[in-house]
């Protein structure tokens, strides 16, 4: 396409860049925004009407149902398009294709086995198991220190959450989902994020207990995501909780020799999981209002390719001959699945350098990995390929199945009635008023700062004293008003989920 992408990421250079560029009236040429911010930018005239152009592109328009749902939900008439949902699937709003969910406790099978594969009933048991693992494996093979909890702060407050990401994502282990200042419980009721009986407190306390047992990386709180990626790839992490993060370590060789990460259940947990992102993941891709002429033509062609089978294959599967081979029946077999973690050299015809250097830095897709590649008849996500399943029927997998009585993580969760699957819905949620925006920012900053302090609290009394002080401070900022706003806002989403079921 003869395009050069200059990527400006608030997650990296600070959120103030968004406010500054919005104030200047030019967010950029291609924008990727959470839905509430997209709505704000629409109201401010910062997003281009792409209606006349998008209908010319078949790859984009194959997702017409999702495009219509998003844009009509934003208040536009049929046939008017401003936004493109990210990570759309072609399954259904209630389908859960995953064999492993987004967040669950995952241990290295060899390390878990080395300490006797203990049964775990609760978080205390998980900590005891992690302590056994840390004592037995205090370093990686190179002698670098390893820890169960390797944390980082640079995702805190993103994606409409308030609080630190490393706590927010683990609340789903108990069936609860953070919705701004509110927690959505399994029965679809809401409670405050400051509720001492709810999951934010529970997980923050869990991390503090881990710290006091010597299980938290001392660099946590200051290191960034790039440093954490390096530690995952180097074998300096004993616990993972994002299913996709295992890609920095798991490989077919490690699945075969039993050193890969896998889900290990904790008996008192019920796992929240989102269904396939049929309507999209919540982020929206659009074109900046200042774009015109040849640049606009190039952008639309690029976005259509980004949605095409060829584009989606590059994004999800990589390069033929380097990342996969084509079988006689047209399906794929994965090769060099360590390309990302080891930054494998790339042939000069594809630009040379290392695989990480040329990996997609937009880090957002239009087509979900759960969608079907029409060229193969299988998903773009490699873990559902028939060749992948055949290759990974390893001794480790057999041993895991024998112990837990299931084929995979989701099968275990379904059999034991501990999976809470939430339908994917397309709704437009209220944007913050100016006053709510101020309260949210103050509450988020205080909650994040206090959470990090509490993780490193000296004892239970110190932890609880800091928690109580936090709640008092948040109340002074107007937390109750923020909570009432968020409950009303997300009740719209909850009602849509109930209807979808």
Write a structural description.
This protein is mostly helical. The protein has helices at 10-13, 16-24, 35-43, 51-54, 58-61, 64-73, 109-114, 123-136, 165-168, 199-212, 225-233, 252-257, 293-307, 309-317, 339-342, 355-358, 386-391, 395-404, 409-415, 434-455, 460-477, 479-500; strands spanning 30-34, 84-85, 103-108, 177-179, 182-184, 190-192, 239-242, 261-263, 271-274, 283-287, 324-326, 332-334, 372-373, 378-379, 419-422. The chain is 42% helix and 10% strand. Strands 1-10-2 form a 3-stranded antiparallel beta sheet. Strands 7-3-8 form a 3-stranded antiparallel beta sheet. Strands 4-5-6 form a 3-stranded antiparallel beta sheet, covered by helices on one side. Helix 20 (434-455) runs antiparallel to helix 21 (460-477). It is globular.
**What is the number of helical segments per DSSP (H or I, 4+ residues)?**
22
Estimated radius of gyration:
23 Å
Q: Would you identify the regions where 5 or more consecutive residues have pLDDT less than 50?
A: none
What structural class should be given to the helix and strand makeup?
A: mainly alpha
What's the mean pLDDT score? 94
Shape: globular
Distance from N terminus to C terminus (CA atoms, Å) equals 43 Å
């Amino acid at each position: 396409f003869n395009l050069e992408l200059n990527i400006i990421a608030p997650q990296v250079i600070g959120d103030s860049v968004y406010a500054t560029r919005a104030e200047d009236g030019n967010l950029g040429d291609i924008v990727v925004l959470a839905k509430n911010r997209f709505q704000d930018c629409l109201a401010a005239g910062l997003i281009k009407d792409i209606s006349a152009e998008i209908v010319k592109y078949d790859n984009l328009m194959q997702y017409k149902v999702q495009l219509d749902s998003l844009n009509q939900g934003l208040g536009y008439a049929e046939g008017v398009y401003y936004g493109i949902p990210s990570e759309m699937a072609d399954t259904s709003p209630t389908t859960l294709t995953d064999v492993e969910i987004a967040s669950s406790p995952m241990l290295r099978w060899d390390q878990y086995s080395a300490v006797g594969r203990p049964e775990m009933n609760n978080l205390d048991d998980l900590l005891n198991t992690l302590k056994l693992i840390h004592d037995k494996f205090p370093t990686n093979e190179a002698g670098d220190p390893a820890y169960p909890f390797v944390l980082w702060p640079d995702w805190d407050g993103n994606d409409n959450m308030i609080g630190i990401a490393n706590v927010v994502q683990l609340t789903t282990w108990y069936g609860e989902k953070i919705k701004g200042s509110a927690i959505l419980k399994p029965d679809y009721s809401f409670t405050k994020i400051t509720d001492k009986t709810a999951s934010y407190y529970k997980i923050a306390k869990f991390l503090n207990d881990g710290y006091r047992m010597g299980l938290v990386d001392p660099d946590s709180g200051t290191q960034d995501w790039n440093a954490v990626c390096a530690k995952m790839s180097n074998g300096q992490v004993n616990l993972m909780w994002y299913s996709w993060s295992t890609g920095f370590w798991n490989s077919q060789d490690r699945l075969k020799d039993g050193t890969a990460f896998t889900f290990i259940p904790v008996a008192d947990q019920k796992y929240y999981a989102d269904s396939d992102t049929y309507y999209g993941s919540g982020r929206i891709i659009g074109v900046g209002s200042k774009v015109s002429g040849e640049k606009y033509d190039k952008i639309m062609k690029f976005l259509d390719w980004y949605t095409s089978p060829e584009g989606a294959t590059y994004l999800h599967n990589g390069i033929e001959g380097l990342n996969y081979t084509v079988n006689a029946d047209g399906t794929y077999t994965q090769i060099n699945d360590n390309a990302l973690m080891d930054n494998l050299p790339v042939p000069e015809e594809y630009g040379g350098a290392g695989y990480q250097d040329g990996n997609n830095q937009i880090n957002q897709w239009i087509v979900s990995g759960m969608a079907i590649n029409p060229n193969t008849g299988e998903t773009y996500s490699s873990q559902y390929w028939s060749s992948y399943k055949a290759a990974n029927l390893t001794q480790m997998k057999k041993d895991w199945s024998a112990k837990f009585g299931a084929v995979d993580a989701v099968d275990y969760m379904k059999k034991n009635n501990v999976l809470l699957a939430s339908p994917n819905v397309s709704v437009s949620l209220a944007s913050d008023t100016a006053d709510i925006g101020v309260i949210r920012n103050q509450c988020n900053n205080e909650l994040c700062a206090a959470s990090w302090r509490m993780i490193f609290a000296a004892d239970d009394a110190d932890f609880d004293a800091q928690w109580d002080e936090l709640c008092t401070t948040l109340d002074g900022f107007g937390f109750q008003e923020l909570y009432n706003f968020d409950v009303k806002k997300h009740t719209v989403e909850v009602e849509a989920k109930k209807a979808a079921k």
